[in-house]
Write a structure and sequence with these properties.
This protein is an alpha/beta fold and 307 residues long. The chain has helices at 3-20, 43-48, 79-86, 105-113, 125-131, 148-163, 184-193, 241-245, 247-258, 274-286, 289-298; strands spanning 30-39, 55-64, 70-74, 91-93, 102-104, 115-116, 141-146, 172-176, 196-202, 222-225, 228-229, 234-235. It has a single domain, classed as Rossmann fold, CATH 3.40.50.
């Protein structure tokens, strides 16, 4: 995998977050062609509170000004918090593609609501791709997404590969912190039709570990990064679930893998002053097998997990 491309597409996902924050999206050499809207993942909770269903800008369709590469960048939503807390993880048939098995119902509901533009006449993404009059010849399609957006990118990639115009039927996929999306039948169909998937995961991040396996599975193989390792002791980010998950942290970890100048994480997610002391303690405890054996032999909790 090309880390430069993974970072570039991650930055376009960040641009989708800029839109919901009311900021001008930073898209580099890409032109924003259209905006994708969808119902928020927290729709069910909104209904229970008597609030209207929230339709939000969830993604961007862009085209590279030089190459003609089309990119669909999909962000996560606030609803991911309620999705984790509810932990129902029900399944439903993924009907856009025959024989594609079942997918998580919350993601599927959001995906079914995804339209390019607003209003009753707005087209699905797959239909819009074939109908739009592109200013430049389209040379490739890349679909990228973070968190819930990673799950939506996975669903969209399969739908596009099966149902879009021929020019778009070989999408390249980049997901960051994506949860598991579907069952074994869905994964088999996806891996059959989508040739290139780059699924980036911070091993400390909790969201890619949900929903549980079985019945849910991941597509493709994980490209692993580490914000925290025990051996050797290393803490790259403040140890909390939010810092392990957000897009800016993934960009930081990818820049470290690339070996170039690091892309700084959010200030709240830097390791802080307490971490060096913890690392030194860990290094001392783990510097030899004798030290490790002593720790297990002498620690007051040594019998809690058996001898």
């Amino acid at each position: 995998m090309d880390w430069n491309k993974a970072i570039a597409y991650g930055q376009l996902v960040n641009a989708a977050y800029d839109v919901v924050a009311g900021e001008a999206p930073a898209t580099g050499g890409y032109e924003v062609v259209a905006t994708i809207y969808a119902n928020d993942l927290a729709t069910d909770a909104s209904r229970q509170r008597g609030q209207p269903v929230a339709t939000v800008a969830i993604g961007l369709i862009l085209q590279a000004q030089a190459s003609g590469d089309v990119v669909i960048a999909i962000r996560g939503t606030e609803g991911i918090k309620e999705w984790v807390q509810d932990a129902k993880f029900l399944m439903r048939q993924f009907t856009p593609v025959a024989g594609a098995g079942e997918t998580e119902d919350g993601f599927t509901d959001v995906y079914r609501s995804m339209k390019v533009g607003e209003g009753a006449e707005a087209a699905t993404v797959v239909k819009w791709l074939g109908e739009h009059q592109w200013r430049r010849p389209t040379t490739s399609l890349t679909i990228c997404g973070h968190s819930l957006g990673g799950a939506l990118a996975t669903l969209l990639a399969l739908d596009v590969a099966a149902n879009a115009e021929v020019a778009f039927q070989n999408p390249i996929v980049y997901t960051y912190a994506s949860p598991r999306t579907g069952d074994e039948q869905f994964i088999a169909k996806y891996n059959q039709l989508v040739a290139t998937t780059n699924r980036l995961v911070d091993n400390a991040d909790l969201v890619p570990q949900l929903p549980s396996d079985p019945p849910y599975k991941h597509v493709g193989e994980a490209i692993e990064m580490d914000s925290f390792t025990l051996i050797p002791p290393r803490i790259r980010l403040q140890p909390n679930p939010v810092c392990w998950h957000i897009m800016s942290s993934y960009l930081y970890l990818m820049s470290l893998e690339l070996g170039g100048p690091p892309i700084p994480p959010k200030p709240e997610c830097t390791p802080g002053d307490v971490v060096p002391g913890l690392l030194e303690q860990l290094k001392e405890k783990l510097r030899s097998t004798d030290k490790l054996a002593d720790e297990f032999t002498t620690h007051p909790l040594r019998k809690m997990g058996g001898n």
